[in-house]
Amino acid sequence: MLKVFTSSLAKAPVGLSSSRGLIGRSLSSLAQDPEMAAFQARAREVEAWWAQDRWEGTVREYSAEDVARLQGTARPSYLANGQAKKAYGLLSGLFKDSKATATFGALDPVQVVQMAKYLPTVYVSGWQSSSTCSTSNEPGPDLADYPMDTVPNKVDQLFKAQLFHDRKQLAHRLAKMTPQERKAQPPVDFLPPIIADADTGHGGTTAVMKLTKMFVEAGAAGVHFEDQKPGTKKCGHMGGKVLVPTREHVGRLQAARLQCDILGTDTLVVARTDAQAATLLDSNADAGDQWHILGTANPALPSLTSYAQAKTGSGSGEAAALTSEWLARAELCTLSGAVVKALKEASHDEHATRFAADSKFLCHAGVAALAEERLPLGSPGRKALEAWSADKARTREGWYRTEAGVEACIQRALAYAPHADVIWMETAEPCLADAKRFAEGVHAVYPGQMLCYNLSPSFNWDTTGMDDLGLEKFIGELGKLGFCWQFITLAGFHLDALACDTFAKDFAQRGMRAYVAGIQREERKRGVETLTHQQWSGASLVDAQLATLDKSSSTLAMGAGVTEAQFEERRAA
After folding, report:
1. Based on C-alpha coordinates, what's the Rg of the chain?
2. Each residue of 440-468: pLDDT tens digit?
3. Which DSSP category does 295 fall into?
C-alpha cells in the first residue's frame, strides 16, 4: 500500500476480464471441463494476490487470466519469493520512516557471509561480475558484453552460501548451546535479501524475461534494469551512453514483472535511468522523449555526417575535431528552445517566457501546434521552427543528441514509476541538491515511490566538499528524501584489492610475521570467525551429517588430529 498516485496516468491493475466469456461459464459447463475450471481457479488466485496492499499502484497491461494461462499446471515455489517479501517489508518500512539502509556489492561467499552480521541487504554488481567472474572466464570492463548468465550465476553462488551458513548456524546452536546461551546470543540472519544487476536485460523482451527467471531461480529478491541500449551499454560513470526510448524501457519493466507474475514471486523490480549524463538517444519514436532532443536551427549548416565526410581525412583525431567544430556552429537546442531563442532575439521577451513555460515538455508536434496557434506565419519563431533539425545533429551511428540532466531523469522516472518498486537515478557525483530535486520531482506525482542511490566508488569522495561528518551523515540525509536503499556498488572489489595488496606487500617484507600480526591476531582480536576456518567452512555440519548416518564413524573432519584444536588450547590457556 506504499505507492500513492496523484497523477491521471495511474490506473488500477488489470484484473479478470469477463468480456472473454470465461468468468460467466455455468457450473455445469465447468464440471464438464475440469481443465477450464482449474485454469479459472488459478486466475482467481492470481487476482486475489494482486489485490494485496503490496501491489497498490502497480500497473499491469495484462490480466490475471493472461498470467494463469502462461503458468502451466506444475507451479514450483521459489525461496526467492520469501526473500522478496522480506526486502519489500524492510524497504517500505524504512521509506515510511524517512530512513535508509545501506549495503555494498558482495564479491564472494566470504564477503556475503561476514557482512550478514551488520547489513540487512546484499547488492550484486554487474561491474564486479564482469571484472571477476564472467562465465566465459574472460574479464573486462562493465559493458554488459559478458554472457547473460554471469550475474545470475554469482547470485546463485552467494545465495547457496547464505543457505549453507544458515544451516550450519542452526545445527551448531541446537547441538552446542544451552537455551540460556541461545537467549543471550541471538542468531545471525545469514539470509539478507539479494538485489542484483540485470544491466539492460541483455536483449529484447524475451531476453529480459529469461534473465529475470534466471535471477529468481538463483535466489535474487530483486533485479534492476537500466535504460541504456544493449550493445552500447557502458558503466554509468563512463562516457558514450546511449538511451533507449522511454517506452522501450517501460516494456522491459513490464516484461520483468510479467515473468515474476508467471513464477508467482513478489520480486522487486528496480528501474534505473542514466539520463542525467547520457547525451545520446537510440530513436525519436517516443513522443515523450522529444522534448529534450537537440538539433540545430542553422539553415546554412549541413548535417554533421555530411560536414565530416566533406572535410575529414582518415584520422580519428581529425574527425573528433570536426565534430567539435560543427557543434560550435550548430548551437544545439531543443525545438522549443529554438523558438524561444528566436523570439528573444526579436525582443519578444514576454512571448518567449510564456512559450518556454508552455512548451517545455511538449513533443515536436505539440511545439509546432503551439507555435502555429500563437505566432504569425513568417515570424522569427515560426522560421526557427521550420529551420530546426534534429537529424542534422545525429551521430554517424544515427543516434540523436539529447539534453541530459536531472529533469530528464525525473520525466523518465515518472514513466517508470507505475511499473517499478524502486527507482534509481544514476548520478555523476554525490550531490544532495540533485537528489532532492529528483526526489521532489518524482514525489510530486508519486509520493509513495521508493528510491535508491548508488554511493559509487567511481566518485572521488574527497573532492565533494563534504567533511568527515558530512560523509557520515550523507546516507541518512538521502534517507530523509526517500532514498531508502543505498549501496556502494563495488566496495567488495575495492576492499578485496586493498586487503590483498596490503598483505602481499607486508608478507614480501616480513614473512610469517606479516600474516600472524596482520591477519591471524586481528581475526582473534576482532572476533572474526574465519580465524577457525574449518569451523567457518562448515566441517562440523558435515560431521553432523555423517554422524547421523554412522555415529561411530572414524573419519569425522573435526575429530582427533584437527589442528584447529590449537586455537581452543590457546583460548583455554
Report:
1. 29
2. 999 999 999 999 999 999 999 999 999 99
3. B
